[in-house]
Design goal:
By secondary structure, the chain is of the alpha/beta class. The protein folds into 2 domains: about 5-100 and about 315-405, 3-Layer(aba) Sandwich (Rossmann fold); about 105-305, FAD/NAD(P)-binding domain, CATH 3.50.50. It is built from 15 helices and 18 strands. It has helices at about 10-25, 40-45, 50-55, 55-60, 85-90, 120-125, 150-160, 175-180, 200-210, 235-245, 350-355, 360-375, 385-400, 405-425, 435-440, and strands at about 5-10, 30-35, 70-75, 95, 100-105, 115-120, 140-145, 185-190, 215-220, 255-260, 265-270, 275-285, 290-300, 305, 310, 330, 335, 340-350. The strands form 4 sheets. The chain has a 7-stranded mixed β-sheet with strand order 3-2-1-4-18-17-16, with helices on both faces. It has a 6-stranded parallel β-sheet with strand order 6-14-7-8-10-9. A 3-stranded antiparallel β-sheet has the order 11-12-13, with no helix packed on it. Helix 5 (about 85-90) packs antiparallel against helix 13. Bound molecules: NADP nicotinamide-adenine-dinucleotide phosphate. NADP nicotinamide-adenine-dinucleotide phosphate (NAP) binds next to helix 7.
Length: about 450
């Protein structure tokens, strides 16, 4: 039997799923759809550009496309260019691997002011995402990241670093130029609970605290009186790192100060049209463990506020969705209706399956689980898909004016980025505009 599977989303979770499929069934045909002409999703546009060793996972993921039965079909937007019914009509199974493309909001006064944005958008900008808007950092001296997870740590580190240390990344030249001109003096990381509740991980925290030229300001009271008997290793290490940084004398020239503020949350962003300050309210936990107001107030002058309070997935047209949990309801990757019935031939992997948690590697075992169920569900005696059914889908897309890009198109983009990098004595410089990416795809 010759089966075929459509994967929607060419990020790490989708590519790990494709790899798992070919490892288990080398004869299966796989088409991987993405709305961008560039594969690798959050690995390209979310993992911090200075985390080059994680970025190198792309080399292993690119091998997915070496198998001749795997095809990249970029520039195809699910729900717009191709529908759920189109895919279910042409393939034996569909795997949704679209991640979490939106962010949570604070829902406080002033959140719409200029200078208030999400860390997700800011990360997209410095990662050269073609949809990202430009950020001007001229005149920005004080930045506040709300939330104490790894995304907050990432944006703080990128802003804290001397821009010369970022030359070795693949950031677009326009972004590097802006970071070189920037003169951020104060970076605030604000956590609504205590240091012992922070979500960041020790490797990422240590890297931030050790940034050359960065002084650390952390209230010792926030690190006192914590019952450390039952803390896990991650949390104990975080606390040791914070204590060490807070008590360490800083020698050398201070370029920037990192202010860690726990037991605080923003209540209001103030300013005429642009953010000028943030009113923080003190917090404590009530008897039920809920974050409540402690009555303390302080106002911090700030030019840029980055919400780093988590991502959220958006519903896919026609596909089952649990709005409360922000995921496609599923049983170990098998898509379910809101009532818990199985949606035959539909599967999920990655953040749309389990929520926005975990590192790139988490997606490997997650994808394996889904693929094991998918293969077990395939009918050994029949197949929905044929070469003809897939050709009909290609004709339908062509009739809609959709012309998918290929993996060869991506390789052309990659080569152009390497060439651009050479012009600036860098290994690679990302191309960040739609028109340049499309021109490269059309120059076949
Ligand atoms: P996260 O780890 O869930 O952290 C979100 C932070 O925002 C928490 O401190 C949370 O506090 C806070 N928060 C949530 N809602 C809030 C609100 N309404 N007001 C104030 N604070 C609020 O999310 P993330 O940083 O976006 O990271 C997402 C995932 O990507 C994580 O698994 C992370 O480890 C991973 N990631 C990894 C790396 C890396 O490995 N280098 C880099 C980036 C991201 P509470 O705890 O009180 O809810």
């Amino acid at each position: 039997m010759s089966w075929s599977v459509a994967v929607v989303g060419a990020g790490p979770s989708g590519l790990f799923a494709a790899q798992s499929l070919i490892r288990k069934r080398p004869d299966i045909h796989i088409d991987i759809y993405d709305r961008l002409p560039t594969p690798f999703g959050l690995l390209r546009y979310g993992v911090a550009p200075d985390h080059t060793s994680i970025k190198s996972v792309a080399v292993a993921l690119a091998r997915t496309f070496e198998a001749e039965q795997v095809h990249f079909r970029g520039l195809v937007h699910f729900g717009k260019d191709v529908t759920r019914n189109d895919l279910l009509g042409a393939y034996d199974a569909v795997i949704y691997a679209v991640g979490a493309s939106e962010d949570l909001r604070l829902n406080i006064l002033g959140e719409e002011l200029i200078g208030s944005t999400s860390a997700r958008e800011f990360v997209a900008w410095y990662s050269g995402h073609p949809d990202a808007r430009d950020y001007g950092l001229t005149g920005v001296t004080s930045v506040m990241a709300v939330g104490v997870g790894n995304v907050a740590v990432d944006v703080a580190r990128i802003l804290a670093k001397d821009a010369r240390a970022l030359d070795s990344t693949d950031m677009p030249e326009t972004v590097l130029g802006e970071l070189r001109r920037a003169a951020v003096r104060d970076i605030w990381l604000v956590g609504r609970r205590g240091a012992q509740h922070a979500k960041f991980t020790p490797v990422e925290l240590r890297e931030l605290l050790k940034t050359p030229g960065l002084a650390v300001d952390c209230d010792p009271a926030d690190l006192d009186g914590i019952d450390e008997d039952h803390l896990d290793r991650r949390t104990s290490t975080n606390l040791s790192l914070l204590r060490e940084a807070q008590s360490g004398a800083f020698d050398g020239e201070v370029r920037c100060t990192l202010h860690l503020r726990f037991w605080r949350r923003p209540l209001e962003l103030r300013g005429d049209s642009e953010v000028e300050s943030v009113v923080l309210g003190g917090t404590r936990l009530d008897d039920d463990g809920r974050v409540v107001d402690s009555g303390l107030r302080e106002e911090i002058p700030t030019d840029l506020v980055l919400r780093a309070i988590g991502y959220r997935s958006v519903p896919l047209p026609g596909v089952s969705f649990d709005a409360d949990r922000g995921i496609v309801p599923n049983s170990e990757g098998r898509v379910l209706t809101p009532d818990g019935a199985i949606c035959p031939r539909e599967y999920v992997v990655g953040w749309i399956k389990r929520g926005p948690i975990g590192v790139i590697g988490t997606n490997k075992s997650d994808a394996n689980q889904t693929v094991t169920h998918l293969l077990a569900d395939l009918d050994p005696n029949s197949s929905v898909s044929t070469v003809e059914s897939r050709r009909r889908l290609s004709d339908t897309l062509a009739a809609r004016g959709v012309s998918p890009s290929s993996f060869d198109d991506w390789k052309r983009i990659e080569k152009a980025e390497t060439n651009l990098g050479m012009q600036h004595e860098r290994d690679r410089t990302k191309i960040e505009t739609w028109h340049e990416l499309l021109d490269l795809c059309r120059s076949r």
